[in-house]
């Protein structure tokens, strides 16, 4: 298991060391991003799996407001001055209050459609078979950017009776494919940008320098000019030539390939026993041994009975057996000139993931692990 784990780490790291990636896969265009929108609505048509209106008063209030806006009177007529009109008590279980969320893509035009996610707010047990009533979706500025409506698609289910319940997935959340119609366009476009700025997804000085050199090398032959300069280790500013459009320009720049640099880092997750070692991790020469101590405690109570005619009482006498076993451990010398030798040295010890984690943390404490250790 350990050999397979570290062999997989070695294969992935070795493959990443030889492969170059496109610039558009490791950098984004500043200003071209998604915007989150959210709305509150009602899902109707449920088969008795909606909210209990007595336990979810906001669902009842929303239902009454929707019916009144459609011209349906849901209030009792006032009989006297001392007896004003009161709302009619509703007893339906076919309605559920939901929150509708979506990500508004950049440069999307009014009239286009996008997917939305619907999640229950009350005590509804399932949204299966429901239909979302027209719901306005707003952004952080309070403006309405889309309107959602349609049949909810639910992947999970929940069925059961009084003694047993069977469920799979999450039946109280679903999606509506192409369920939102865009009503407003997000301000800003590529043509309005004086400079185009690339933002690295994983900021690094070496990676930024390699991207800068690759772009200027390409631009020197294509445009006869140096068009890129670095602002910091995260952003690179591009000066677009006048005789080319921004879309074609970014398409050409995005297809350029570079080899991103990764920091020397070891990521440890003690809960799952996962260890990920970066390609550039180095270990100074150290001698490591790790012993496995197993302690077993067994309780074997003994029943003690009194002798005949002794007028004694039967008692339970505790009896504890403790066994300690420490397996023999070997001393291994680790010298991580490269990742392959480091993995080979760790495999020689033959430990479980918990042992590997303990050794790496101890080597870091000793100052021999030349990398950052991140414990999740």
UniProtKB/TrEMBL annotation:
Q: Which residues form the signal peptide?
A: 1-19
- Compartment(s): Bacterial flagellum basal body
UniProt GO molecular function? structural molecule activity
Query: Which UniProt keywords are listed?
Result: Bacterial flagellum, Cell projection, Cilium, Flagellum, Periplasm, Signal
Q: Does the keyword NAD apply?
A: no
GO cellular component labels: bacterial-type flagellum basal body, distal rod, P ring; outer membrane-bounded periplasmic space
Which InterPro entries does this UniProt record tie to the protein?
A: Flag_FlgI
The alphabetized list of GO BP terms reads: bacterial-type flagellum-dependent cell motility
Entry keyword Signal: yes
Summarize subunit and interaction data from the UniProt record for this chain: The basal body constitutes a major portion of the flagellar organelle and consists of four rings (L,P,S, and M) mounted on a central rod.
Q: What does this protein do?
A: Assembles around the rod to form the L-ring and probably protects the motor/basal body from shearing forces during rotation.
Protein family per UniProt: Belongs to the FlgI family.
Q: List the PANTHER family hit by this protein, alphabetically.
A: FLAGELLAR P-RING PERIPLASMIC PROTEIN FLGI (PTHR30381), FLAGELLAR P-RING PROTEIN (PTHR30381:SF0)
The protein's name is Flagellar P-ring protein
Give the organism the record lists.
Bradyrhizobium centrolobii
């Amino acid at each position: 298991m350990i050999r397979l784990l570290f062999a997989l780490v070695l294969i992935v790291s070795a493959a990443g060391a030889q492969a170059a990636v496109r610039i558009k896969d490791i950098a984004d265009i500043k200003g071209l991003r998604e915007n989150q929108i959210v709305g509150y609505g009602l899902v109707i048509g449920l088969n008795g799996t909606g909210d209990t209106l007595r336990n979810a008063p906001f669902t009842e209030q929303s239902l009454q407001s929707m019916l009144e806006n459609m011209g349906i009177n849901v209030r009792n007529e006032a009989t006297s001055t001392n007896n004003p009109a009161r709302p009619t008590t509703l007893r339906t279980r076919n309605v559920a209050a939901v929150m509708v969320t979506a990500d508004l893509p950049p440069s999307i035009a009014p009239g286009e459609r996008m997917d939305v996610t619907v999640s229950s707010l009350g005590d509804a047990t399932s949204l299966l078979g429901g239909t979302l009533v027209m719901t306005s979706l707003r952004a952080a500025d309070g403006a309405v950017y889309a309107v959602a409506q349609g049949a909810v698609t639910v992947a999970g289910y929940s069925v059961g009776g009084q003694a047993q319940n069977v469920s799979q997935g999450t039946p109280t959340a679903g999606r509506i494919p192409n369920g939102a119609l865009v009503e407003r366009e997000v301000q800003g476009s590529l043509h309005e940008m004086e400079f185009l700025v690339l933002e690295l997804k994983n900021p690094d000085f070496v990676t930024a320098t390699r991207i800068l050199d690759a772009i200027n090398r390409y631009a020197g032959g294509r445009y006869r000019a140096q068009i890129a300069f670095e602002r910091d280790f995260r952003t690179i500013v591009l000066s677009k030539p006048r005789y080319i459009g921004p879309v074609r320009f970014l398409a050409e720049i995005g297809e350029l390939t570079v080899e991103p640099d990764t920091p020397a880092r070891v990521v440890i997750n003690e809960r799952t026993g996962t260890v990920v070692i970066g390609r550039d991790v180095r270990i100074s020469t150290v001698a490591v041994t790790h012993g496995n101590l197993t302690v077993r405690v067994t309780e074997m109570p003994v029943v003690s009975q009194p002798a005949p005619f002794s007028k004694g009482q039967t008692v339970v006498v505790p009896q504890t057996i403790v066994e300690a076993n420490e397996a023999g451990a070997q001393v291994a010398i680790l010298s991580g000139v490269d990742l392959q030798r480091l993995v080979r040295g760790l495999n020689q010890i033959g430990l479980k993931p918990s042992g590997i984690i303990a050794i790496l943390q101890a080597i870091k404490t000793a100052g021999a692990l030349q990398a950052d250790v991140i414990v999740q």
